[in-house]
Amino acid sequence: METIHTIQEMRQLRARFRAAGRAVGFIPTMGALHDGHLSLVTAARQECSHVVMSVYVNPTQFAPNEDFSRYPRPFELDRARAEEAGCDVLFAPTDAEMYPARFASYVNVGDVTERLEGVLRPDHYRGVATVVLKLINIVQPEKAYFGQKDAQQVVVIRKMVDELNVPVALEVVPTLRHCDGVVMSSRNVFLTAREREHAPVISQGLQRARDAFQAGARDATVLCDIVRECYERSGAFKVEYIAVADAQTFEEVAAVDRPTLLLVSCKTPESGTRLLDNVVLDGAR
Ligand code: AMP
Description:
Layout: E1 2-4, H1 7-19, E2 24-29, H2 35-47, E3 50-55, H3 75-85, E4 89-91, H4 95-98, H5 117-120, H6 124-139, E5 143-147, H7 151-163, E6 169-173, H8 193-198, H9 200-214, H10 220-234, E7 238-246, E8 259-267, E9 274-282
Parallel strand pairs: 1-4, 2-3, 2-5, 3-4, 5-6
Antiparallel strand pairs: 7-8, 8-9
Helix pairs in contact: 6-7, 9-10
The structure holds adenosine monophosphate.
Adenosine monophosphate binds at residues 29-30, 36-37, 39-40, 146-147, 149-150, 173, 175-176, 183-186.
């Protein structure tokens, strides 16, 4: 695996792949790699002859009060994991490379970035869309891989790619969980032992609502209340939102009468870690 830090080197490597007629699969990450990230590599390996992963903690998607400076950065471990999983190239640019002085071009994807996560993190998706577009322009992959774990991010990027005619195919990979149902996430390292013990309640609440959906419940309030009751009974988290949203627009809906997502975000009381999860509730139109 080659590890490169500059845009120029990445472009040269890309030109070599193109000359050899090789399809490139790309996985943008912020590092602190776990098996969830590596499942994206596995998917890319199956479909592409070359796999490029980026590891870059993007400052423009963090608000000043968020965890940018303490976000885990175990770079040598990431390098070993990426190589073992089958990456051919690890692209780890510096901030100066990505955001030179007087940088001022940002991508705004509109309404979808202002809902749910966008309410709690107002400029987050502007930073995400900007860095993802930059990385896609640098790597120029045939396919780019994203996790369903970050469902709203997938919708934002899909809209950006469609509306700005970005020549890449997006592939979405299912959420990988620990065996107790907890979503694998780089931020789980922040959880205290007690918070980690309670964390399975997050997916259990969603599972209960999904069971009710499968038994015929379609009212979004009823489904959200099932989840809320489960979380309140545990008393382990502060609920930030529980919502049923249209899978394409992320507008909240009153009834599951189309493809939707049930999305939750909770904050833990001791470490203040945000735990996000979602399930698909695919109501017939
Ligand atoms: P991050 O490093 O958190 O920005 O994540 C990089 C990519 O990996 C994003 O597309 C995430 O949605 C995806 N990802 C992170 N965790 C998981 C997981 N547990 N299962 C599937 N994909 C994931």
